[in-house]
Design a protein that fits this description.
heterodimer, A: 260 residues, Rossmann fold, 2 domains, seven-stranded antiparallel beta sheet, 14% helix, globular, B: alpha/beta, TIM Barrel, four-stranded antiparallel beta sheet, 9 helices, 21% strand, binds flavin-adenine dinucleotide, binds flavin mononucleotide, binds FE2/S2 (inorganic) cluster
Chain lengths: 260, 303
């Protein structure tokens, strides 16, 4: 029995969440395999002269009844831009499910989820799937300014939401790691999870390491295949060069060779 | 249903569609998508005697209709393969071919001796054409004396099918093909990647950690096809066609030009199932043209 699949999905929603982030929801005819937070899909960008390879995106939501998946796509370059122009009714070819998931928190854990940019997608998925009562789940979302934030208010059912912005237009002013949850409460968490820009994840990892808290991050190295055959996406680790697409994208910070 | 069976020297392939080294892992990664028995064979990821970490990140740059890679033969070494990977894949009902790489002739010999002992590996592909390692590799493949020497020495110790993989980064690839044929190669495979380069103009830096890398994908197909045609006309041993094969028509073109089997590489990254579609497309083509056997397609170009 195959464990990974290639299939065409039907686009059923494409909504702008702000100027650069889009929520794309897709549906397949076949039954979805089990998918966990941290895992990703590799998406074909059709009819593009410039984009040859697929583009990886984290899974944001799964509905096993309707066989739908959702992802949040941030416009970065030519592939993501093209993808956000897709219309309801178009088809999208996916390779899925790829990569390893975040370590599931145990029932008594208090967890902190840190998301920046499109890195919010796997964090919100993890919040929902953690199975923990809301009091044990804190999410902190960082962005440059209010306009760059994505409205995720409905996630307040699963977690306490905190915000930071560099200009102070939403939540506390500064980087996520300058937020009071970091400066005052970090040691009260059992697990910290982060996904976002490199600089943000490194800053989170540094704080977690200092506080001695378990911390996992999700890396976004450049990929060609996405399923472990090309060895292009490697990250130096304590176990040698590992593939981000199969050994990751989720890594414990103690495994990484980051200079933090 | 046409007969898709073809032979390469004394190896039988259930169909002429195989996957290229470095693009299908050790076949087990592909088995997560489909039954490996559906393909003619798998050219496994390049192995070296000892563990190699490969080059630094970034190792990949997308280009127009293709990509550059600079993986640098990352692998855990042949002993690791024999102990940990071989047992898991040896019973796949398909041809498994080792791609062997060395920095010295002694490396190639020792590797070939080790692989010679593996019951279920019926052939090796001698890679004398990797553009991504500083020492050895392509150095042997770009001169006739170099290519002849490695082939001759490996031939002495390796008793099964010996395929030599040629570099396109040479003035006349047929000369190299003839040279390895003289030294006892049972087949040649071509092409490996073309040396290329990509630059990030905004940041004014090379896109690859190694500055240059190997170009693959549809961008190289016409050149690869020309080279396969030239080599097939220059040697008597069979030819394995490689380079930018994206669909059944591409595979058929390589066979018309003289390839007995073909390898699909970079196309796998776009569609892990592509090789199965190519098998189906080849079968339909043969039926449509009333060709009973895939064998009859090989080198049947009308010129
Ligand atoms: C496992 C994983 C999960 C991801 N999840 C999401 C997600 O949920 N939402 C989302 O919006 N994005 C996600 N990404 C990132 C997304 O894949 C990239 O933004 C996308 O591939 C960019 O493609 P593009 O064609 O738009 O950019 P390009 O035109 O290819 O590149 C634009 C510029 O960005 C640089 N660049 C592109 N990709 C990377 C990279 N990975 N690392 C460093 N520089 C890069 C290029 O060098 C270039 O300068 C994820 C990536 C990975 C590996
Ligand atoms: C990421 C990558 C890794 C490769 N690794 C190897 C290798 O280990 N040994 C080898 O002989 N060729 C290697 N190749 C070359 C391919 O086997 C093939 O010759 C080349 O990519 C051209 O075919 P294509 O255009 O179909 O990909 C590699 C190619 C790519 C793209
Ligand atoms: S992207 Fe090919 S191995 Fe990870």
């Amino acid at each position: 029995m195959p464990k990974k699949f290639v299939a065409d999905f039907n686009v059923i929603q494409n909504t702008a969440l702000n100027k650069t982030n889009f929520l794309i929801k897709i549906q397949t005819e076949s039954k979805l395999p089990g998918i966990l937070p941290g895992q990703f899909v590799n998406v074909e960008i059709k009819n593009s002269q410039e984009v040859f390879l697929r583009r990886p995106f984290s899974i944001f939501e799964v509905d096993y009844k309707l066989n739908t998946l959702a992802m949040i796509v941030k416009i970065l370059g030519k592939g993501s831009e093209k993808l956000t122009n897709i219309r309801v009714g178009d088809t999208l070819s996916l390779v899925y499910p790829l990569g390893k998931h975040f370590t599931k928190p145990s029932a008594s854990d208090k967890i902190l989820l840190v998301g920046g940019g499109s890195g919010v997608a796997p964090m919100l998925f993890l919040a929902k799937e953690s199975g923990l009562p809301k009091q044990q789940v804190d999410i902190i979302l960082g962005a440059r300014t209010q306009a760059d934030h994505i409205n995720v208010q409905h996630y307040s059912d699963f977690a306490t939401l905190h915000y930071s912005s560099e200009d102070g237009s939403l939540g506390e002013k500064g980087f996520v790691t300058q937020h009071s949850v970091f400066t005052q409460n970090l040691k009260t968490y059992d697990k910290v999870y982060a996904c976002g820009p490199d600089g943000m994840m490194k800053a989170v990892a540094r704080q977690a390491k200092l506080a001695g808290v378990f911390c996992e991050v999700s890396l976004e190295n450049l990929m060609a295949c996405g399923f472990g055959v090309c060895l292009c996406c490697i990250e130096p680790t304590t176990k040698g060069n590992l593939c981000v697409c199969t050994d990751g994208p989720v890594f414990n910070i103690n495994e990484l060779k980051w200079q933090i | 249903m046409a007969d898709l069976k073809v032979r390469l020297h004394d190896l039988e392939f259930k169909n002429p569609i195989t996957l290229a080294s470095g693009t299908c892992g050790f076949a087990r990664e592909m088995a997560e998508f489909f039954d490996p028995a559906l393909l003619g064979g798998f050219f496994l990821k390049g192995s070296t005697l000892k563990n190699r970490d490969g080059n630094e990140y970034p190792r990949m740059a997308e280009t127009a209709a293709g990509m550059l890679n600079a993986v640098g033969l990352q692998n855990k070494g042949v002993d690791y393969f024999i102990e940990n990977i071989y047992p898991e894949i040896k019973d796949y009902d398909t041809q498994l071919i080792m791609n062997v790489n060395g920095s010295t002739v002694e490396d190639y010999i020792e590797l070939a001796e080790k692989v010679n002992e593996l019951d279920k590996i019926n052939a090796i592909e001698l890679n004398i054409s990797c553009p991504n390692v500083k020492e050895g590799g392509m150095a042997f493949g770009v001169t006739c004396p170099g290519a002849e020497m490695v082939t001759r020495e490996v031939r002495k110790v390796y008793h099964k099918t010996l395929i030599v993989k040629l570099s396109p980064n040479v003035t006349d690839i047929s000369e190299i093909a003839k040279a390895v044929e003289r030294q006892g190669a049972d087949a040649v495979s071509l092409v490996n990647t073309f040396l290329g380069m990509a630059i990030d103009a905004e940041k004014r830096v090379p896109k690859l950690s190694t500055i240059t890398g190997g170009l693959s994908g549809p961008a190289i197909k016409p050149i690869a096809l020309r080279m396969v045609w030239q080599v097939a006309n220059a040697v008597k041993i069979p030819v394995v066609g490689i380079g930018g094969i994206m669909n059944a028509t591409d595979a058929i073109e390589f066979m018309l030009a003289g390839a007995s089997i073909v390898q699909v590489g970079t196309a796998i990254f776009k569609d892990p199932m592509i090789a199965l579609k190519i098998v189906k497309g080849l079968d339909e083509y043969l039926d449509r043209h009333n060709i009973q056997s895939a064998n009859n397609l090989i080198g049947s170009l009308q010129v």
